[in-house]
């Protein structure tokens, strides 16, 4: 983010707070519940206890008062996971803003807005940033100084692409590590283009399954450019395509391969969606051609209706 954009838009923290105002307006209740609990058993109600945990439906069937007991009752822990590999800098631009983002810029501001939402709800927030390894890992905490540190680390990621700093992706390995390092029963929100390698889909799905196996609730924001990356919408002329991670170059006219390319990309996205459904992972299409606050608001409203 250059100084001109900072002057126009304010700090990352300030803008996140602005966006959260938009999230909260019109929602009858928080889309993320303030307590993360897992039902364990019923026990008989003792006179004098608070009545808030009485199971009134069970009372209607048995005419006896039972209290719901929970295995764990604590503030929600949210772990934000941001893919910062070089492929996330696509499309490469020097002047980034809310109307003209790349994938990483879109992910950073989305993560910042969610961090602010969690802060307002008194829920703990942590951050993981990865490329071929985990570069930043912080445990989920509530302290204001911790949230400000998260904003600071995210803002460091908003710099334009540096072609001399190629960062490959090992999403599979990193997600396995995050599954083990993150406190059990956390809400893990991932921002990634889910590009590891063409051969590693099954391993990538296994890493997502690992997160669910460790009792984490997982939300995957699949960040992509719907026009350029998914549909290869370029002018009918020769182009020189450069892999942002390896530096490999391919010269071709995209219209000659567009139909087949679109079929392959759609099949990959459908396969990811199918596996997310299988593992009970919330899959969110995050097309950077839409404003990031619109994508987040649509998801939060949908979640509020479902839960």
Report on the structure:
The chain has two domains: 3-27 and 76-306, von Willebrand factor, type A domain (Rossmann fold, 3-Layer(aba) Sandwich), CATH 3.40.50; 37-73, no CATH class. Helices cover 38% and strands 23% of the residues. The chain has nine helices and ten strands. It has helices spanning 3-9, 12-24, 56-62, 103-120, 144-155, 171-181, 201-213, 258-278, 292-306, and strands at residues 35-44, 66-75, 77-83, 124-130, 134-141, 187-192, 217-224, 239-242, 249-252, 282-287. The longest helix is centred in the C-terminal third of the chain and has 21 residues, at 258-278.
Overall pLDDT: 84
The oligomeric state is: single chain
**Beta-strand level of the residues, as a percent range?**
15-25%
What are the secondary-structure elements, in order, as H or E? HHEHEEHEEHHEHEEEHEH
Q: Which fold name is given in CATH as the topology of the largest domain?
A: Rossmann fold
Helix content: 25-40%
Major beta sheet, specifics?
6 strands, mixed
Stretches where pLDDT is under 50 for at least 5 consecutive residues are 1-11
Tell me what the CATH architecture of the largest domain is.
Answer: 3-Layer(aba) Sandwich
How do the strands line up in the largest sheet?
5-4-3-6-7-10
Question: How many domains make up the coordinates?
Answer: 2
Which structural class is indicated by helix and strand composition? alpha/beta
């Amino acid at each position: 983010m250059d100084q001109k954009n900072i002057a126009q838009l304010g700090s990352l923290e300030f803008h996140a707070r602005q966006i959260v105002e938009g999230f909260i307006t019109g929602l009858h209740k928080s889309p993320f519940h303030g307590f993360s609990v897992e039902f364990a058993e019923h026990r008989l109600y003792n006179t004098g206890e608070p009545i808030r945990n009485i199971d009134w439906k069970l009372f209607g069937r048995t005419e006896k008062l039972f209290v719901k007991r929970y295995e764990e009752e604590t503030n929600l822990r949210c772990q934000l996971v941001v893919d910062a590999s070089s492929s996330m800098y696509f499309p490469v631009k020097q002047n980034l803003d809310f109307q003209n983002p790349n994938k990483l810029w879109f992910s950073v501001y989305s993560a910042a807005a969610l961090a602010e939402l969690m802060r307002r709800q008194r829920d703990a927030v942590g951050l993981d940033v990865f490329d071929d390894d985990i570069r930043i890992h912080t445990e989920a905490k509530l302290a204001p100084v911790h949230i400000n540190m998260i904003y600071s680390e995210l803002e460091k990621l908003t710099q334009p692409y540096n072609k001399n700093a190629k960062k490959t992706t090992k999403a599979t390995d990193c997600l396995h590590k995050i599954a083990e390092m993150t406190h059990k029963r956390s809400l893990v929100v991932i921002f990634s283009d889910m590009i590891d390698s063409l051969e590693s889909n099954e391993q990538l799905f296994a890493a997502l399954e690992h997160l669910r196996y460790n009792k984490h609730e997982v939300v995957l924001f699949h960040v992509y450019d719907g026009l350029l990356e998914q549909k290869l919408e370029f002018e009918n002329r020769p182009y020189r395509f450069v892999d942002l991670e390896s530096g490999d170059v391919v010269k071709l006219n995209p219209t000659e391969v567009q139909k087949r390319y679109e079929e392959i990309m759609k099949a990959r996205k459908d396969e990811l969606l199918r596996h997310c459904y299988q593992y009970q992972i919330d899959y969110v299409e995050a097309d950077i051609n839409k404003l990031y606050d619109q994508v987040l608001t649509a998801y939060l409203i949908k979640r509020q209706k479902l839960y």
